[in-house]
Design a protein that fits this description.
The protein has a domain of 43 residues. 50% of the residues lie in helices and 8% in strands. The chain contains two helices and two strands; from the N terminus they run αββα.
């Protein structure tokens, strides 16, 4: 009789531990990577919004202007 009682208690404690693990995993709300998909946390709607100011369409505007200025300064020699 005593053996079956301890076996039941062990089974109950194992089930409770498993339940605690499942509940804690569900309550953490972290970002996960499942089958190649990055899934958001359950709190993504309440996250802070990050704002990125719009930049120029052409990312190399200064470099293009410098190259244009450099090519304008070059003087070609007349061909004989």
């Amino acid at each position: 009789m005593k053996n079956s009682s301890s076996h039941s208690q062990r089974r109950l404690s194992t089930m409770l531990c498993g339940l605690v693990v499942l509940v804690s995993l569900a309550a953490t709300g972290c970002q996960m990577d499942i089958a190649g998909q990055t899934l958001p946390s359950p709190y993504y709607l309440s996250d802070d919004v990050q704002y990125y100011a719009p930049g120029p369409e052409f990312k190399l505007a200064r470099e293009a202007a410098a190259l244009k200025e450099q090519s304008a300064k070059q003087i070609s020699k007349p061909q004989p």
